[in-house]
Amino acid sequence: MGVRPGSALIGCALALTAIGLTWASTLSALPDPDASFDAFLRAREDTGWGGRYERLELQGPRGRVILHLLSFNPKELQLQPQVAIAPGGIGTRARVLDVTRGTGALVGINANYFDPGTDLPIGFLLQDLRPLSTPYGRRATLGIELGGTLRVLNPEIALLLRTSEGGVPLDGVNRPALPDALIAFTPEYRGPLGDWEDARVLALRDDRVVWVGTGTQALARARSFQEETLLVARGTAQARVSGLIPGDFARVDFTLIPDVLLLRDALQAGPRLLRKGEVALEPWEDFSPELIETPAARSAIALREDGTLGLLVVTRGNGSVGMSLPELAVFLRDRGAVEAMAFDGGSSSALVFWDGVRARWRSLGSTTEVPVALVFRPLPR
Predict the structure, then answer these.
(1) Structural domain boundaries of the chain?
(2) pTM of this prediction?
(3) Distance in angstroms (rounded) separating the CA atoms of residues 220 and 159
(4) pLDDT number for residue 192
(5) Less CB within 10 Å around the terminal CB: N or C of the chain?
């Protein structure tokens, strides 16, 4: 689903009445601020491995909304959250089900936005301490610490090349080469390369420079670079790496403000929905009002104080009118969430999990192929 610059607006009121529960709060995208939603629990099932699946229906002024919610405590169940890319690499896509099964995980949900023209993810990606995609401003970022703790952030992220002389600014990771820019291409990259003819290229392996040459030379021997990260410097950016020779220390890295100790994985999507239990939609995340306010299919993650998380998919079509992001933020807040962020929505929204009771996979939402998923994999016993 594409993203256009814009601002987020919040306002008016939503009341949700469920079996034995009434949820009320403020929100703007409803046509009638006094209108209420009647919420009904249509299904509640045990997953067989400790999770709980719920299918909810909300009846409101626009019609019926269908939500699928999977709740579990990953630490109690010893499930490791991690960023997973499509098996074909960066610049390819796969179904969330295939990405999830391929990692040996029990649960998966779509994550980053992406460019449908190139299949490249939009926003920061960190996998096993390695940057795999370029940051996009201060959009909401899900950080995963080494111990599995999840954090929702709006950090300032900067890419850099660390050398023995200090840090060198890096203009991007896994993006086509641009004039006067220094771009890193990791071994996972399968997208467009851009113009390398006027470039200086360095190959890195195990944090060392192992080869230096021109862009033409690098493209001619591209098949020999299987495990190397390639640094492509065009135009004025060549001066940043002109002193590096084979054997020198060099590592693609990043800085994060505020810093998160022991950060292992991260993904950037957004917008942020909740911060410390309050609706947190902010204009500076640079999403269009249309994306914020239009009822649509949605994907999101929500965290509670006790460590329980919820993965949510709202469907649109087949009798469901979808939700706006303010509506979704209020819904999650009133179910006890304190932190939450949205993932890519629309035709990308997909949630899958292993149904251990019925010994089959459950797939909810879309089957559209995506470049990135957030998965939860059992820790080795």
Answers:
(1) 13-41, 83-87+113-271
(2) 0.89
(3) 28
(4) 96
(5) C
